[in-house]
Design brief:
The complex is a heterodimer. By secondary structure, chain A is of the alpha+beta class. Chain A is built from six helices and 27 strands. Chain A has a six-stranded antiparallel beta sheet with strand order 19-18-26-25-16-21. Chain A has a five-stranded antiparallel beta sheet with strand order 3-2-1-5-8, with no helix packed on it. In chain A, strands 4-10-9-6-7 form a five-stranded mixed beta sheet. Classes of the chains: A alpha+beta, B alpha+beta.
Chain lengths: 418, 276
Amino acid sequence: MQKLLHCWLLAFVLFASDSSAQDFTYSNINIVSVTFSGGNLTIRKDDGSGAYTSPQWLAAGSIRNPVAYISGVAPKAAAAFTINCATAPDSVNVRGFGSDSINFVSKKVIVTPASGTIHNFSYPSTTGSHVFTASIVRYFKPYTINWEISFDNGITWKPIGSSNNTMYVTRSAPQAEGTEYKWFHTVYDLSCRNAQYKSLDTAIISKVWSEFTDQIVLNWNGDSLFYYKIMNSPHVTLPNLLKYRDAECYTFAQLFLSAIKIQGVIRTNNYVYITPINNTVCGYTVNRFIVKNWAFGTPSATATCPQFPYKNTYNAFTGSIPAPYTAYVFLTADVTDQAGIPGSCNIRPSSYFNNHQIAKIDGVYYDACYGVTFPTLSSIKTAAFSGWSFRYTSGSTTNCFFTNDMTQSDLSETISTF
Amino acid sequence: MRTTVFLFIFLIIGTLARAQSMERKIVIENGHFYFTTIDEEFQIGSLHSGALSEPLKMAVKKALPAGRNFTDPINPFSWDISGNNFYAINFLMHPLNDRNESLKRLKISSLKAWGPAVTTLDMIMQGTDLTPFAYNEPYAFVIKRSSTLNNFFYDGIALNDSSYFMAIANNGEMSVWNFNGKEWKHSEVQNFPIDGYFSLFVHGKKVCLATNAGGLYEVSVKGISSLEGKSVGTSLPNCLLIVNKDDDSLWYLKNNDVNQHTPLNELIEKKAIRIF
């Protein structure tokens, strides 16, 4: 009885002193965990190790997992607390004030007595006071809930700490996951961060695209996503881009499209594979192109192929980008790679290709790895290419022939839906 | 402690091995079985082979300079064995990999085990520069007909070293192609709506096609005709086909019945269901 009176006396003293200490929190009450539920969306970790789990906020280990909802839904939160006191009250009232003025109403909760001085109580899973505005993208970094306690049945309240989580609110239900399109953390982050407060498809697409236009694409943690950090990067899927933060063109198109799909924006026939039309020149199929800039020196193969008079050779076994994979290495070279069009987080990415993959939305070609758009397929070659090429391997040597005459071939496109 | 560490490593290796599922089928030829797996992260393939009396887990694993992508809808790795050769359609996504040059033929004896000198990157790059045994005219034909890929699926098999069959579908149409070592011949384009991958196999010197749903058809450059009254008995994603070229039999094994520890001949006897 004496201990109980001591607790109440302590509470009374702390309450009384609050008028001159607005930020005061009870040091003897701790938030243990906060769990969001009620329709929150799966968020996959970028490293491929699975989805984030609940509780999304955990004091132990400083766990601060992201949370996502669809707009028009109210968040639902539960929390667990401890109170360090020799003898705890039978019950207390707890409430929370969340970002976006979403409140979690007062609930009277039982304090579970323990044999020691630390006792537990839990705020039950409670739906927030209102929904996230329907059809609007939101991004909270952080989404804060300020928790309060009352020892006198809700008459007076005192803060007992805050929980912070990153919160994503998608405009609509995300499109269902596929083999490569997954609800990754960075997909939510990039999309909601850029499309905050947007509602219309066109506005969301435009804002998501703005992430790519400065050639600095960042993941949820602010880390750079590199286009060809290693010049022959083997990473060609969205999961690999996010896991290794270094990948080829395919992945940036996939990231751009995923960031649109996560908002529930539907665009079919959105993924374009471009490659030369495979016309035949000098007995060989033109199936390579070089992206600006390449310097054309003195042609050495005019007699062999007048239309493609520039010739490079490379070791067929090691390829044109041998270890340590930092530059093109040719045995002989009429044509040499120069600094040119920068890609994401890389001022000099690979630039000798058979194919390239980009997004196409509402008739516009979006090249996400370079952050540029094209109005037509035919405009790509003049804006971005230095030339065409074909190659063949003979013994241990691969022979590449080049031209900077852009009329010697053209691009074809194959369209599918990502 | 050491035992614990070894057990942990074993479990990790085991998990990794399981992560790569077999692609389409097991081929039996000259008393040996062959199957392929694809690295889910890097798309590159491996060929596994062993004696018919051995468990699948005892198979020797060799690196392939070919693979396939994981783009939806999934088209499993298209591959076959004929005599001393391995055939594949190298459809992994890579900016240097030309789909028109994707038909590859390799001597099985030339394949090497994975190791420090045979890396994923090596195999991807080798595959892109590997001379095709034939221009992939079926693919060129399809994308010329329509640049939009929708329910795009394909498979190819080798009857022998001078006859390679391929069926290719897009936008609800299918055509059947045969390369005779010099040139391609093909069927008329037929309406043939499908919503999943299909597989080709040979039975009784006829090329047959099993649809995703388990339907069976005979295919040739003359066209596609239903094998009335015959079906696989299950859908393709639920099973592995077992193509026994030694006795011209065809079986399927439910995915749940694939046991890596049982000798394959015993597994077939106990669990496989005969189609032909």
